[in-house]
Amino acid sequence: MAIENEEKHFSGGKRYKNKDITVYWKPSACVHASYCYRELIEVFDPSRRPWVDMEGADTEKIIEVVNLCPTDALTWKWNEEEKNADVRADQCNHVKFRRPDLMQAGSEAMDADPVSAKVMIDGPIVIKGDFDLSYANIKKEVRDGLISICRCGDSDHQPFCDGKHRKTGFTG
Amino acid sequence: MEENKSKKAQATVEVIEFGPLKISGNFILKDLKRNTEEKPVEIWLCRCGKSGNKPFCDESHKK
Predict the structure, then answer these.
(1) Where are the domains of chain B?
(2) Contacts of A149 in chain B (CB under 8 A)
(3) B31 and A119 in contact by Cβ < 8 A?
(4) What CATH number should be reported for the domain whose range is B12-62?
(5) Tens-of-pLDDT digits for all 172 residues of chain A?
(6) Helix or strand (DSSP H, E) at A166
(7) Predicted-complex ipTM score
């Protein structure tokens, strides 16, 4: 079973497998919303190497928490390829890997949706949607975007979160 | 992709230098720690970590 849980590379990141599913991790897409380790530290522990332990929880729980990831940083697929076709778009977070068509469904209805600003527990502000952003002397028209703004004051990539709050033990 | 370009901004997000984050317009503010969800018109959120009224700014950054 050790071999099942092995950390392997794929283009853009790493993948982790148990007997049922493969979880893909793409660090460049992470905005440190921190749902993964907050909800399931047994599997997703950033202080451990490898940081993902696929034996830490059952498959159902891992899928549930990977689906919480607001970006492409964590996605998943059934190991049995045929099963992937039956997964509903709202039940999965792997569609960008193989079902881009499903991502389009419903996006039109979201055109006038309000922007979502989420204050994460002891973490950043995650802002999602269509908004105009300004910082320093930069102005950006962000559409269908997702950004994460530092709330602890310690990020080295101001104004954006770089995950530093976890190291400094920020609460708030 | 063309559709995206014509989409209008629903809100304005402004990072104030050495100050808070201002959000205004059509947006929903969810606070996962305090378990609140509101639809304010305009807010200032703390970015320095020192506010006594988190997540909102209380001007502690000036001290």
Answers:
(1) 12-62
(2) 15, 21, 45, 47
(3) yes
(4) 3.40.5
(5) 444 556 888 778 899 999 999 999 999 889 888 899 999 999 999 989 999 999 999 999 999 999 989 888 999 999 998 888 888 877 777 654 443 444 444 444 445 789 999 999 999 999 999 999 999 999 999 998 999 999 999 999 999 999 999 999 999 9
(6) helix A164-168
(7) 0.92
